[in-house]
């Protein structure tokens, strides 16, 4: 019997981490049922999109976002608002952070988070707080991507967990961890993990050349450590921090041009396996306070910035696919995510690599409605975003009300 598909996307150039070809992509029941050369789909499709001239990438998996719900910071961003911005940026799955107020540090609170997340238009998963005194909760929660260690001060974190013996006890559990750890603190954490760690450790927003070098060294020695870079650390440096003031302030802060170059090298040689936004929405009114909370929005601008970097020859489209979908999905074992293959979730982003645009505050769908990249001219634009076989963003509009689901985290 001929294959029955809900949707056929034909004619776009599909880019995967290993190559690119003009493709027929068919989905049914939210999954890919046919992935082959253009013209190869012999079945029937209820809907066909002719996508000649566009480039198709696996939907982006952003493993580091702050969506601010539930709790007192929901005015900065919600699953509804920030997931729309993400969809407009080609992101089809996010992992959200536990430094909400209150923290996501108990199984009961995680259920409250799950309730909020149902408003998301894209798929999602959760990082759980490892506060240092909630080990029972960490062992009890189901289907979390990691347990988050905050070892430096940042939004909502006033007493970071920098106690070596407590870190040792946590890392020895073999649970998956993610850390905010900068500079000397990162060195300390890597040393404790080397000696006591029995599970994976992922380092968020790597920003310094010495941090890239530390990861390169421990990975070469076989330590189970991965790292990500954030777009603001790749596309801005300390001279921008001076220009942007509080709108260019985040943790880690913007670094030197030499640090930025080291991040790009780390992405090129595989030391860093993911790019993740650290999307951290704060209203302009929050940013006008003294001291202003650190963090900048990023989910809607990551892909346009990366496409522009491709146009400038800094990396290839294959690299973009590797670093924004397959790489991050693999780090956190996200089932069905990160690749366009038969049986995988039908997540896709169609981009126009030739379209020029100016990133502007006015176009931002986030609650804060500003971006540190306001005014930047880029080559490359998101045209459509498909989440599990359903268009969520098309030609400038969000076209669904909700529909995101919790991703399954493999063990
Ligand atoms: C983040 C936030 O605002 O939640 N801020 C930031 O500067 N990156 C927290 C964090 O990721 O450290
Ligand atoms: Zn952080
Ligand atoms: Zn963060």
Task: Describe the 3D structure.
This protein has 411 residues and is α/β, with parallel strands linked by helices. It has helices spanning 79-88, 107-117, 135-140, 164-171, 184-196, 209-220, 231-235, 238-244, 257-268, 284-287, 302-311, 317-331; strands at 4-16, 19-28, 31-37, 44-50, 55-58, 60-65, 91-96, 123-129, 146-150, 177-180, 201-203, 225-229, 274-275, 348-358, 377-387, 390-394, 397-398. Strands 1, 2, 3, 4, 5, 14, 15, 16 and 17 form a nine-stranded mixed sheet that branches. Strands 6-7-8-9-10-11-12-13 form an eight-stranded parallel sheet. Helix 4 links the parallel strand 9 and strand 10. The radius of gyration is 20 Å and the shape is globular. The two termini are 36 Å apart. 54% of the residues are buried. Bound molecules: N-carbamoyl-L-aspartate and zinc ion (2 copies). Residues 64, 66, 97, 204, 278, 280 line the site of one zinc ion. One zinc ion binds at residues 64, 66, 97, 204, 278, 280.
Can you lay out the helices and strands and say which pair or pack?
Layout: E1 4-16, E2 19-28, E3 31-37, E4 44-50, E5 55-58, E6 60-65, H1 79-88, E7 91-96, H2 107-117, E8 123-129, H3 135-140, E9 146-150, H4 164-171, E10 177-180, H5 184-196, E11 201-203, H6 209-220, E12 225-229, H7 231-235, H8 238-244, H9 257-268, E13 274-275, H10 284-287, H11 302-311, H12 317-331, E14 348-358, E15 377-387, E16 390-394, E17 397-398
Parallel strand pairs: 1-4, 1-5, 6-7, 7-8, 8-9, 9-10, 10-11, 11-12, 12-13
Antiparallel strand pairs: 1-2, 2-3, 5-14, 14-15, 15-16, 16-17
Bound molecules: N-carbamoyl-L-aspartate and zinc ion (2 copies).
N-carbamoyl-L-aspartate binds at residues 66, 99, 154-155, 180, 250-251, 278, 280, 293-295.
């Amino acid at each position: 019997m001929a294959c029955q598909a809900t949707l056929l996307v034909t004619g776009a150039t599909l880019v995967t981490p290993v190559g690119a070809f003009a493709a027929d992509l068919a989905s049914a029941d939210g999954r890919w049922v046919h992935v082959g050369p253009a013209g190869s789909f012999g079945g029937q499709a209820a809907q066909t999109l002719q996508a000649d001239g566009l480039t198709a990438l696996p939907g982006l998996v952003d493993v580091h976002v702050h969506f601010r719900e539930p709790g007192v910071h929901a005015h900065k961003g919600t699953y509804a608002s920030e997931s729309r911005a993400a969809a407009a940026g080609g992101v089809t799955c996010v992992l959200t952070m536990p430094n909400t107020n209150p923290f996501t540090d108990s199984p009961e609170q995680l259920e409250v988070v799950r309730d909020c997340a149902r408003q998301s238009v894209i798929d999602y998963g959760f990082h759980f707080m490892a506060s240092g005194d909630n080990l029972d909760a960490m062992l009890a929660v189901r289907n979390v991507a990691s347990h988050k260690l905050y070892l430096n001060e940042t939004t909502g974190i006033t007493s970071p967990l920098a106690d070596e013996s407590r870190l040792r006890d946590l890392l020895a559990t073999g649970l998956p961890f993610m850390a905010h750890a900068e500079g000397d603190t990162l060195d300390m954490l890597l040393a404790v993990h080397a000696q006591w760690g029995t599970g994976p450790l992922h380092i968020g927003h790597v920003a310094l050349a010495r941090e890239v070098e530390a990861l390169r060294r421990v990975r070469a020695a076989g330590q189970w450590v991965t790292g990500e870079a954030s777009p603001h650390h790749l596309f801005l440096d300390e001279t921008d921090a001076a220009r942007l003031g509080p709108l260019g302030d985040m943790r880690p802060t913007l670094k030197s041009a030499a640090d930025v170059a080291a991040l790009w090298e780390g992405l090129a040689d595989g030391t860093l396996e993911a790019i993740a936004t650290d999307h951290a929405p704060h209203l302009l009114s929050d940013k006008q306070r003294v001291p202003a909370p650190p963090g900048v929005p990023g989910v809607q601008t990551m892909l346009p910035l990366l496409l522009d970097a491709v146009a400038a020859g800094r990396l290839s489209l294959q690299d973009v696919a590797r670093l924004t979908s397959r790489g991050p999905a693999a780090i956190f074992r996200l089932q069905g995510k990160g690749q366009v293959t038969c049986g995988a979730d039908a997540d896709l982003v169609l981009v126009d690599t030739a379209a020029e645009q100016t990133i502007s505050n006015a176009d931002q769908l986030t609650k804060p409605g500003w971006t540190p990249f306001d005014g930047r001219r880029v080559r490359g634009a998101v045209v459509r975003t498909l989440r599990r076989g359903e268009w969520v963003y098309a030609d400038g509009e969000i076209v669904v009300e909700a529909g995101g689901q919790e991703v399954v985290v493999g063990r």
